[in-house]
Design brief:
Elements (H helix, E strand, L loop, with lengths): L9 E2 L7 E3 L4 E3 L9 H9 L5 H35 L17 H10 L6 H5 L3 E2 L8 E4 L3 H16 L14 E3 L6 H20 L10 E10 L6 E4 L5 E8 L2 E3 L2 E6 L10 E3 L5 E6 L2 E5 L2 E14 L1 H4 L12 E2 L27
Antiparallel strand pairs: 1-16, 2-3, 4-5, 5-13, 6-7, 7-15, 8-14, 9-13, 9-15, 10-15, 11-12, 11-14
Helix pairs in contact: 3-6
The chain binds 2-oxoglutaric acid and fe (ii) ion.
Length: about 350
């Protein structure tokens, strides 16, 4: 079966924290048994939510989002089952990762990273450090242009089909959940294990790069009549890969600010352009967002990579010791630590 060998879990905060409110484009916490916190009320007020009527609408939206999240895992598994039985892929070959999909430079970089005396300095000669060294954001060729074209065609074929579709995440309304399409087993998992992990090990050893053991992967899509942009956020990931797949579009640049654990009063953002077929690697905790596209369609593959060794100690979403709850498949990448599993202490990157 496709079940991971190890049981992955989620943190209970998924039902209470980081609830994204589309209307005001901000994240709130909400615990049913309690009133909204003073802090939430203030933030809402600052965003123009003031009257009783405004608050009623917010409360309703939040309660709906909590309900959606409670049913999410179950509904996602139901969609996946239907899709695997009924969906007819246009390009079945893109479901099984092959070296020919990957850019030759990417294969070279991975080869270097898996060689005996690979080190960070050597790797930095292969990839672009695009933001100055402090942000640790890197650009590298990932796929061939031809693969990007076929992959988007496949996703469009799915989009135009009658199949049930989920939303990529809380903040993106358009795109495809790659798990539901059956793309984890023979594509995303080997891509993470064989290719991305060796690179991340050298770039982010202090942030779980050496122990990435699960992921959540999806494609986001922006266009003038769908989502235009993406609000500032951090990912539920230790390390993220974001690959531009196409098609033709203008603007829609990404911007990156501080680490979530170390916000400065006036964050300095760096803006980064997309280059089709190339990817960006960044730490999930680095606050970022996307500017509006002004024409065309932008499709990006996002792989949120997770390290159970890191997140078992501190959930990146609620910033507390995770309250572990059962989950489907990779869940949110937590595990019940067993003794002798990992060293007792693992450096967390915000401590450094
Ligand atoms: O729009 C993008 O390319 C970035 C998406 C993103 O940051 C995310 O889904 O976490
Ligand atoms: Fe993100």
């Amino acid at each position: 079966s496709a079940r991971p060998a190890r049981a992955f879990l989620a943190c209970a905060c998924f039902h209470t924290d980081n609830l994204f409110l589309q209307r005001y484009r901000l994240h709130l916490s909400y615990r049913e048994e309690k009133e909204m916190t003073k802090e939430s009320l203030k933030v809402l007020g600052d965003h123009g939510c003031r009257t009783d009527e405004d608050f009623k609408v917010v409360l309703k939206e939040i309660q709906e989002e909590v309900q959606r999240r409670k049913q999410l895992a179950h509904q996602s598994m139901a969609r996946k089952a239907i899709i695997s039985q009924c969906y007819k892929p246009k390009h079945p070959e893109v479901y099984v990762l092959q070296d020919s999909f990957l850019a030759p430079e990417f294969l070279e970089t991975v080869k270097y990273c898996t060689s005996q005396d690979a080190d960070l300095q050597g790797l930095l000669r292969c990839i672009d450090s695009i933001s100055g060294s402090d942000k640790r954001i890197y650009r590298l060729p990932v796929f061939s242009k031809e693969f990007c074209r076929l992959f988007i065609e496949e996703l469009e074929n799915f989009e135009q089909s009658e199949m049930p579709k989920g939303r990529p995440n809380t903040m993106n309304n358009y795109g495809v959940l790659l798990n539901e399409l059956g793309l984890y087993e023979a594509f995303i998992t080997p891509l993470r294990e064989k290719y991305l992990q060796p690179i991340a090990s050298l770039l982010y050893p202090d942030c779980g790069g050496e122990s990435l053991d699960s992921h959540k992967a999806f494609v986001v899509k922006y266009s003038l009549h769908e989502d235009l942009d993406l609000s500032s956020h951090y990912d539920n990931a230790e390390v993220t890969l974001n690959v531009s797949l196409g098609k033709e579009f203008t603007e829609g640049n990404l911007y990156f600010g501080d680490l979530r654990q170390a916000p400065t009063p006036v964050p300095k953002y760096v803006e980064i352009e997309h280059v089709v077929s190339q990817g960006l690697l960044h730490r999930g905790g680095q606050i970022h967002g996307a500017l509006p596209v002004t024409s065309g369609e932008r499709w990006n593959l996002i792989i949120w990579m997770r390290s159970s060794a890191i997140r078992n100690q501190l959930c990146p979403m609620c910033n507390k010791k995770p309250e572990l709850v059962e989950a489907e498949e990779f869940g949110d990448g937590f595990t019940r630590s067993t003794e002798g599993d990992m060293p007792q202490t693992v450096d967390l990157c915000y401590l450094i």
